[in-house]
Amino acid sequence: MEYLYTKKTAWDELLGRLLVSHDIFGPVAGEHFQEYEHLSSATVPEVIYNRPKPASPLKIFFLPVRENVTSPRKQEKQRIIIGAPACDTEALGLLDEIYLDSDFEDVFYRSRRQNTIIISSDCFDVMEHCHCTSYGIRPWDEKKADAAVAVKGDTLFIRIISEKGRKFISDTGVFTPVTDSSMVSFIDSRHRETESMLERANRLLPDYARTGSLVKESGQAVWVKHSATCVSCGACTTICPTCTCFLLIDKPGFHKVKQMDACQYPGFERTAGGEDPLGELHERFRNRYMCKYVWKPEKFHSTACTGCGRCIEACIGKIDKNKLFMELAK
Amino acid sequence: MPTEKNIYRPIRAKLTDVIVESPTIKTFVLIPEEDFSFKTGQFIELSVDGIGEAPFTPSSSPLVKEKIEVTIMKTGYVTEYMHNMKPGSYMGIRGPYGRGYPVEKFFDKEVLILGGGCGFAPIRSLLYNLAAITDKLRKVTLCYGSKTPEDCIYKPYISELRKIPKFEVYRSVDKGDSNWTERVGVVTVLLDDVKVDISNSVAVVCGPPVMMKFGTLKLLQMGYPEHDIYLSMEKNMSCGLGKCGHCMMGKYFVCKDGPVFTYDEIKDQPNIWN
Known about the structure:
heterodimer, A: alpha/beta, eight-stranded mixed β-sheet, three-stranded antiparallel β-sheet, 11 helices, about 35% helix, B: alpha/beta, Elongation Factor Tu (Ef-tu), domain 3, Rossmann fold, seven-stranded mixed β-sheet, six-stranded antiparallel β-sheet, 6 helices, 15 strands
């Protein structure tokens, strides 16, 4: 791994200068959780590093909740997103497969991906429902972001991941290459500690390779039981970093507005003729699990659940998918 | 600088004629304002400005490029608006989308086609295509069912079909009347009448889900191999691009991986008949 470093104050000053030409986003502390904010020079120093995880998934920067997809694309400023955890950057793999599909490339998505530098933040801590390692994802980014940061005291270390990240780091002129590996040995230690914490916390959780068959083989009673408190609100899909289903809404002038949708909403698959494969609550509930753990893995190369745990935190019915999987794995 | 291709943008198409096919079905003749072509069995997303959009498989010949015909049953919000539209107005078209009928795989074979209700629309497009290549086919047998004689669509076209060498047409209605001289019963009864060399034949099924289900089961009983039964699946195809998720049938996006599948491809997927 190739690291460089700079003073944390120099990094903050750099971001302050870049605010002129870039829209910069990073997680800052809220009353109950951290969340991405559009940074100003005043909030740059408040960005939280190395702690999971912003309340919103990274997809919100690439797939807006609602947008007109037939009006001309607006020229947007270059964007820098700081602090995305690995569970979010990993999710971009699936989004890229769907939205950069060579048959039907979504120019809105492509333009935002090209226009954005993602600086991930290694997780040196875990939250209650974090379980990325159960699904083969390490709590630090190695391939999907452009760079990743780790902060120790008043020094910020940055790891080069992509060529775009290398150019960005080089152009800033504030970083010095790390030549003494002992300077970054703390990062390896923190990685190992975080992994160890995750593995301990989730030792009863079946891994991603096994979840598919568990879901597939479970009878209707399981889904009826676990969906009993579901109110079809769609919070789980909205907050999920890999759920991207949408609806096209017609507007005058043959315009189309693309709006996030959810397979948990009644009528999601209903046809004009009245057939509705997901008419029952337990059918919609099961559909999400089949999609993530059976069908998407059959169809795509990227993982469809990155173990962020947000769906558990967002559920007003207190449905805990990890408990469900532990029950299935017994 | 070339114009960026926007996959969500429809092209405008002028409605030049509306043909009443039955009390609930009309055919809309459209002339797109930009070049537009499709392969038989592919579908389009057709929109009413500011109202909504729905998927339809064109019923016209894929060999005719200057116009496109879409046969639509009035079943819901968008189709009701469509049925009220008059020649001179405009619709929006996106597409064509998906995988149509693999006509080249039908060469040197008998083609048995089973259609019901408005499922005749995609089949008419296929028949136009097959009628243009009769020298490459052994025989084409159409079995078409509808609820009543009044509900039978494309009546003039049926007469034309009966004159084409190598083409045979069988029709049934669930409930006949005093003028009806053909079969009475669900469409699958027609399969008892047809003479077909199954070992050198493919079957095509398109219609309401319940008819697709029992039609497929009957074809399997007759001895058709699963990979020789072609089904045109109807799901809630919303974007047409393999992205929005509404038409997922197991691992397939029906809009992109279909809508035409062999039974063999989809038999293990969930909810194929509803």
